[in-house]
Amino acid sequence: MEDNMNFMDDAEIVKEFLVESNDHLDDVESKILELENNPKDVDLINSIFRPIHSMKGSAGFLGLQDIGKVSHELETLLDEARKVKIIITPKIIEVLYEGVDVLKKLREMVANKVNSKGATVDVIDYHPLLSRITGILGHNQDTVQKEKASGNPQKEKHLGEILVETGAISKDQLEIALQEQERGIRLGEILVGKRMTTPEKINEALIIQSTVGKPSPETVKVDTQKLDNLVNLVGELVIASALISETLGNTNNGANKNLSHLNKIVKDIQDQVMCMRMVPLKSTFQKMARLVRDVSSKIGKKVRLDISGEDTELDKTVIEEIGDPLVHIIRNSIDHGIEPQEERVAKGKPIEGHVRLNAFHRGGSIVIEIEDDGRGLWKEIILNKAIEKGLVEKNASLSDQQIYNLIFAAGFSTAGKVTDVSGRGVGMDVVKKNVERLRGKVELSTVEGKGTKISIKLPLTLAIIDGMIVQVGSEKYIVPMLSIEESIRPKKEDISTVQQRGELINVRGDLLPMVRLHNLYNVQPKKMNPWEALILVVEGEGKRCGILVDDLLGQHQIVIRSLGDQFRNIRGISGSAILGDGHVGLILDVGGIMSMALN
């Protein structure tokens, strides 16, 4: 397929088409969901028609015949629907969904061809879809296709012309109204006043009129690589500003004033550049709406998804990575969280299950909540399954929260059987790892019989972190603030040694392993005794420990720098940063440090 794809010399244009078409298809998919609930909404039909029409035009220009054919047929179907010549039915909704899926696959074929310079791809047979569309359109198909094939651009139509085309009024009624209009009265008012039509049909015609022949708004698209380069340059500017402040900050009051002004400008530039990489969660949340619809219908449950906070913005890189964890959580909520209809009725719950997806800002981070009104998590079932799999000892004493957190253990599942829609627990370890790789946290709360809520806390961006600078001997390290619970100076009696298990520290009754950072990195510390030094209580990958450091030097926003490919897999280190004194500080990976010190 795509025999005429001789566009490799215009790869940049094709890449731009791929970006635009992806946005169009995501938008169309969300609008079809709305149309399913409001099949008579002409405005919705028009909002689906426009991006499909744009895709058809772009595909024709680039010679992408398959995409052009499918989008052309979908456009024909939607054009008939917006003229109210056919009524939107469940069958048409399914055809529209299938059309979006086919266009996504064809788009992926083009992307593979561009990226792999002509690699072979699977052939997609879209002809059954075209046959179904033809069957729906029936005898209108030939006439409409001829009008479309003429290639004449749609001209702006008069209101009366649209009303006649849609069958709202007859030509004779239009002639009578036009004669009245010469007196300066609006056509719509005349038609409604003479009871020739209704205000609703006038509004529908006005919506159609507003969309025909109107150009789409233009936007400027910037290559993400250029944005990345700009972010890096601003990072260098921040570092240079810090170095200048460190060098000249103590000279005189005039210099201090100017440096303060410079730092403010640099901070404003940094904030603006970071905002350029921020995109709303709307597109990701819209995909979840389609997922809920497909999964719930597949397993025979009625589930409603409520979305809020979709305008909340996150760094583009974070949004690209968060999609899969959300899919895992929502699939599990529907399959294993929401009860079957009979069980819900017996409990006095509504037949329709409810999943809520919400995003909001909290303390410089973004929180995404996925909440269901299902059966919740049952402690006894989870604990017995964990004992059966050897994850915990039979007589272990665990808090409720520790038991619930067992669902994040690798391979843990409470599902009675394995299906393609897995039960809560399958893949949850992947969710936790992926979120922690983004320097985020996953928290879980549940009420048995009432439902479960999973909260994902994410940083706004991966380029900058809030970090605590700590000193060990002559070296400075950076600990991400998200990993730090508290800092303490222990008493001598709080430190104990367990044979072959190292040192433990008593933190208000909890015995935590203590990690001596200087031993891990072969540094000579200034303070050997914990009761003379400081302990950072940290949490990572579900575990807690105390890290021994000489001193805390303060909290700062840190611009992250990669250590390069040769140091990519060093355990316990996630990156580096240039500090205000010009020295390089290593950013610690708390989970990696615990696995190094405690295993």
Describe this protein's structure.
It contains 20 helices and 18 strands. It is globular, with a radius of gyration of 31 Å. The protein has helices at about 10-35, 40-60, 65-80, 90-115, 125-135, 140-150, 160-165, 170-180, 185-195, 200-210, 225-250, 255-275, 280-300, 315-335, 340-345, 380-390, 400-405, 430-435, 515-520, 590-599, and strands at about 280, 305-310, 315, 355-360, 365-370, 440-445, 450-460, 465-470, 475-480, 485-490, 495-500, 500-505, 510-515, 535-540, 545-550, 550-560, 575-580, 585-590. Helix 11 (about 225-250) runs antiparallel to helix 12 (about 255-275). The protein is of the alpha+beta class and about 600 residues long. The strands form 4 sheets. The chain has a 6-stranded mixed beta sheet with strand order 10-14-15-13-12-11. A 5-stranded mixed beta sheet has the order 2-4-5-7-6. The chain folds into 4 domains: about 10-150, Up-down Bundle (Four Helix Bundle (Hemerythrin (Met), subunit A)), CATH 1.20.120.160; about 225-275, Helix Hairpins, CATH 1.10.287; about 280-460, Histidine kinase-like ATPase, C-terminal domain (Heat Shock Protein 90), CATH 3.30.565.10; about 465-599, OB fold (Dihydrolipoamide Acetyltransferase, E2P) (Beta Barrel). About 45% of the residues lie in helices and about 20% in strands. It starts with 10 loop residues before the first helix and ends with a helix. Residues about 1-5 and about 140-155 have low confidence and may be disordered.
